Structure formats: structure tokens, C-alpha cells
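Now for our target.
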Amino acid sequence: GKAYGTAARVKIGQVLISIRTKEEKIEIAAEALRRAKFKFAGRQKVHVSSKMGFTLFSKEDYNKWKACGRLIPNGMDVKWLSSRGPLHRLIGRDNC
């Protein structure tokens, strides 16, 4: 027969939905995702990350590097400026 619809092929452990929210709204977002997981077949779990937004930095590291001026906004994530490179980028900044 004909296919009834289409389905996504998902691997075990693959992220289905990612959201960013403010610190005070984490419980509300987790409850919304808990309710949404019943719409998907199989078993899902809600994971609250210790990272800042969609970056690779923890919240403490993110705030530290942001205060030092080592992070540059890049769309939905950030670029990290290492201590290597042109001197004009580092002169006049506190080396944290």
C-alpha cells in the first residue's frame, strides 16, 4: 500500500528539541517539554543543561569570559578569543 505519512529517523540519545530560556523560567519550560514528550512515540527525557544557551561554556565560565571581553556574539552562540593573535586585540584589556 501507500505510505500514510512521513516520520523522522531518530537515533537513541539524539536531541529532539532544544530551547533557551531565562533562569527564572526553567521550571515552566521543563514542564512544557514534559507535556510535549507525550506527543512523541517512545520514551523521552527532559535534560536541563549546565551550559549557557547553545554555547560550549558553563554559566560561570561564560560570565567570567564575558566580563573579560573574550567572548564575541556570533548569532545564537559566541566566539571565544584566545590569547594568541594580533596584539591590538589584547592591548588595553585586562588579561583575566
